Amino acid sequence: MSVRADAKRNHDKLLQAAREVFRERGLEAPLDEVARRAGVGAGTLYRHFPTRDDLLNALMQAFIDRLDAAADAAIAVDGSPRERLLSWVRGGVAEVTYSKGAAARLTAALGDDESRIATKAAAFAQASGRVVEALGADLRPGVDGVQLARLVGGLAMVVDQGELDESAFAPLADVLVDGLLAPTVVGS
Amino acid sequence: MSVRADAKRNHDKLLQAAREVFRERGLEAPLDEVARRAGVGAGTLYRHFPTRDDLLNALMQAFIDRLDAAADAAIAVDGSPRERLLSWVRGGVAEVTYSKGAAARLTAALGDDESRIATKAAAFAQASGRVVEALGADLRPGVDGVQLARLVGGLAMVVDQGELDESAFAPLADVLVDGLLAPTVVGS
DNA sequence: ACCTGAACACCGTTCAAGT
DNA sequence: ACCTGAACACCGTTCAAGT
Description:
The structure is a homodimer of 188-residue chains. The termini of chain A are far apart. Chain A is built from 10 helices and no strands. The first copy, chain A, has 188 residues and is mainly α. In chain A, α1 (5-25) packs across α2 (31-38), α5 packs antiparallel against α6 and α5 packs parallel to α8 (118-135). The interface between A and B is large, with 36 and 36 residues. Chain A binds a DNA duplex (19 and 19 nucleotides) through residues 2-4, 6-7, 10, 30-33, 40-44, 46-47, 52. Chains A, B: InterPro entries: Homeodomain-like_sf, HTH-type_TetR-like_transc_reg, HTH_TetR. Chains A, B: Residues 8-67 form the HTH tetR-type domain. Chains A, B: It holds the Pfam family TetR_N.
């Protein structure tokens, strides 16, 4: 009612343009490129999304949905606790590194309620928390969703920064997973 | 002989200015601030240090010395393998986060021979490698210096991004350390 | 109420002119 | 051989004028 039709249309065009530009050039891509591709003036972009993170936040719902799906899939893995946890670590890192720079932004926002993407970071922590709950006593005592999200985020930043391939990534994920599992009593 | 006295003096003034500016404002501080504080023209800065990383590389020797000292201290810790490894993880993270943004730059350079700070990243990997060697069979098989440096760098990025305090950092370091140790046989 | 796009600020980088 | 600093390019952000 109170939003003009052209405002709504520009809002959608900006989101679509940002989706493309961020995918092609990463999350630090120039914002005037977004405005240009959306076919609107620079001021219109800033009216709808005052900061880069506001724009990012609006784009991230689909990302959060995929992250939740990865957590669900990990919890449902028919195997050992180790396999379930590894599934989440792999799935989480894969989603968080979907766009270059996303891992650093999300991890930074994990402890920051003032962040414009605070709700998305919280969803990341909650997805991790669901995995923590599902693993129960198989997980190292005292680990919570925020801690798990930070560790996954840290690993994702390493992958993002160093552009690691699977063979370089796998041993790091193994270290993280084994450190997260409760110590097992062998040979008793 | 072939370097003019004013060139040498400008070189030193730039390093001193960069040390101050990077400490105060982080590694992404404006370079013209460095030139201004050194009292030289912008072109002089670019003549001596064509890229930001060249300037950083020249500043990092002292940093590498401290990193080596942290590795030595860790190896010399009079305690369990776990305590020695924890000492390195804590010391390494502390040094790598000395300046904001350093963790990301160093970790990115770990796999990149073309990086202008490649020698410094290699020193980071070598210091980690010395800890790996010192721990021998107490460490998880297959772990090398580059992997350990990546994990320490990842944790350092989490601390850097999220500005974590000791109470938030400690449990993450514990997870990493336990994942890095060889599985122990308990109760056999 | 919202839009446009020129204008300003900031910073990296180059290069003509100077010594 | 090296230095200076004006000039250019790029990009974020604001705002006067328009509809």
